[in-house]
Amino acid sequence: MKNIISLFIVVVIMSCNYSKTDLKIENEESTSIESTQLKIEKEIISVIDKFTEAINTKNPDIVSDILDSELDKIKFYVKSDSSYHKKSSSSLDFLKTSKNKFFEKYWNPIITTDGNIASVWAPYEFYLDDVFSHCGTNLFFLVKENEKWRILHYGYTIDKVNCENL
Question: For residue 98, what pLDDT is reported?
Fold first, then answer.
């Protein structure tokens, strides 16, 4: 009977040690995956920050290296009855032609990635000549080519009614 109890204790102790080893390996793998994902997200956010800098400085040349040649832009204007109309273009010429001062800020971006594609969804506020103009949501679709993230498509809402919810 003592032998059975001793054997049982040895098995339990070995199981605990084995579990700790597995857990350590699993934690190291998880940490490595999280570290890689964090690095990817930082790369993506740096592209979005550069885009926002171009808006705020009204200088489209800043983003020439991060915009895909087939860039597509869609604006959704939200009306007071919650309906909307959309306008599409592929140009940032409005940055050069407007005489107004722009300031946009975004927060709490939600980033999703799968290999060489990513999306970023983030609420934002927009100010025109230092006066609040509207709020909305930005949506960016990015692709990674030659180890570099580029914006392929972006869309955003322009909402002058529902900004208190942001």
Answer: 85
The whole model's pTM is what? 0.75
Fold of 2-165: Nuclear Transport Factor 2; Chain: A, (3.10.450)
Q: Give the domain ranges of the chain.
A: 2-165
Q: How far apart are the first and last CA of the chain?
A: 69
With CA atoms as reference, report the closest residue to 157 among 37, 52, 75.
Answer: 75
Strands (E), the chain: 67-78, 84-89, 102-106, 110-114, 117-128, 131-145, 148-159
For residues 19 and 111, give the distance between their C-alpha atoms in angstroms, rounded to a whole number.
34
Cβ 139 vs Cβ 151: under 8 Å:
no
Q: Which residues, given as ranges, of the chain have pLDDT below 70?
A: 1-30, 90, 165-166
Contact 50, 32 (CB under 8 A): no
